[in-house]
Amino acid sequence: MMAAISAAKSGNEVILLEKNNMLGKKLLITGKGRCNITSSLEMDEFIKNIPGNGRFLYSSFGNFTNIDIINMLKENGVEVKEERGNRIFPVSDKSIDVRDAFIKELQKNRVKIKTGIEVKNILQKDGKVISVKLANGEKEQADKVILATGGKSYPATGSTGDGYNMAKELGHTINRIKPSLVPLTAINDENIEIKEIEKSQYKTSLNLCKNLQGLSLRNVKIEIIDENKNKKIYEDFGEMLFTHFGVSGPTILSASSHILRYKNIEELLKNGKIILEIDLKPALSEEKLNARILRDFETNKNKEIKNSLNELLPQKLIMPIINLLNIDENKKVNSITKEERIELVKLLKNFQIAISGFRGIEEAIITAGGISIKEIDPKTMQSKLVQGLYFAGEIIDVDAYTGGFNLQIAYSTGYTAGIN
Q1: Are the CB atoms for 356 and 190 separated by under 8 Å?
Q2: For residues 205 and 171, which has the higher predicted lDDT (pLDDT)?
Q3: What's the pLDDT at 201?
């Protein structure tokens, strides 16, 4: 949509061909239906949040910024607000308002919109684009084509990877497609060798995640550790969620984007060497947490341990913690030893889950990989191989963390392709 708008504003006759029976189907599900439009960070900071070839986007980001998208939406009746983490949302909390603003802008600029039209091939002659061939066998003549078909995530929205095949037929290299911003799976309990469990009795796994399914943790600190090298790969602070297969939530999704690029990641995951460490009480040092637990224990000294941690932990987490500590749930608080209390502190500051891999691409928010940036001119988004062929959005091998960055990539690359 952005590519069509900017191409039309540049004086071109523009036809937008959409496979779905409506525009912006994928936009409607972004931000859980609220649409995280962009980030309020300075544009220079955007590059730091794009682990997948961020530097390629300098020109595009210069051409069309977060301020530009906010202004475009405001001109079409959509006011915005800022939430934590620099995230920008529509005041209405409705992604459909953002989508409708794009449609208004398309109509204002007299873009011819054709929905329910599937494109099969882009045709070229002597190294130049001449037309596109539709699934019904018809052709649309065109001297310029912008391919903006998205990646392979959320196939129900129409992102089924068609664009990769079209680009490949024209000689383009498609770098390996992987899920990014995707939930992580926990290792099956039976897959962890006994010696591993002995080494870290708190290294929890799939059964524990299943027991905690649906529990959302806020304001926790997470670290992803390569246990082989005892090296921290990634850290974040915020929200996460336990699921029947492992873990999800904003911090986990961003972690997935980072670790999919880590050296030998597949082998490390297979061997249970990638560990998610959760600090459940990041605001408290071990000493302060110990003092806090001492106070709670004093108040609840005649209660059983299972009934004494309500102030400290979510209800769902109490029994798993007691089980991991190997303490009898009916043990009275006044008979908990100092050693057991110290172990509780350590566990709350260092709750571990062995990670086994990523969920499938159909559950990923975005796709990593795609058309090689070496074959695209970053200043114009034009193919270096075929004259008149341009690319925009997720089809390109660029991908970012959560927080509105991926949508900004779509606007900026779409705008850049359009003006050129």
Answers
A1: no
A2: 171
A3: 45
| Residue 238: half-sphere exposure toward Cβ, Cα within 13 Å | 16
**Domains by residue range for the chain, with CATH:** 2-179+366-419 (3.50.50.60), 184-358 (1.10.8.50)
50-92 pLDDT per residue, tens = 999 999 999 999 999 999 999 999 999 999 999 988 999 999 9
DSSP per-residue string spanning 39-100 = E-S-HHHHHHT-TBTGGGGHHHHHHS-HHHHHHHHHHTT--EEEEGGGEEEETT--HHHHHH
Asked if residue 6 lies in contact with residue 419, where contact means CB atoms within 8 angstroms, the answer is yes
**Per-residue tokens: 109:** 């600029």
Where residue 308 falls (left for φ over 0; alpha for ψ -120 to 50; beta otherwise) is alpha
Q: Which helix (H) or strand (E) holds 6?
A: helix 2-9
List the one residue out of 396, 376, 384, 390 whose CA is nearest residue 418: 390
Structure token digits, residue 160: 């089924």
What is the pLDDT at residue 159? 86
pLDDT band at 154 (very low <50, low <70, confident <90, very high): confident
d(CA 215, CA 319): 13
Distances in Å between the Cα of 83 and the Cα atoms of 29, 37, 403, 404 are 18, 11, 10, 12
Helix (H) or strand (E) holding 257: helix 250-259
Q: How far apart are CA 108 and CA 141, in angstroms?
A: 23
Confidence of residue 208 (pLDDT cuts 50, 70, 90): confident
Q: Contact 52/205 with Cβ under 8 angstroms? A: no
- Beta strand residue intervals within 191-245, DSSP E: 203-204, 216-226, 231-242
List the structure tokens of 95: 């992604």
The answer to whether the beta carbons of residues 164 and 371 sit under 8 Å apart is yes
Q: What is the CA radius of gyration of the chain?
A: 25
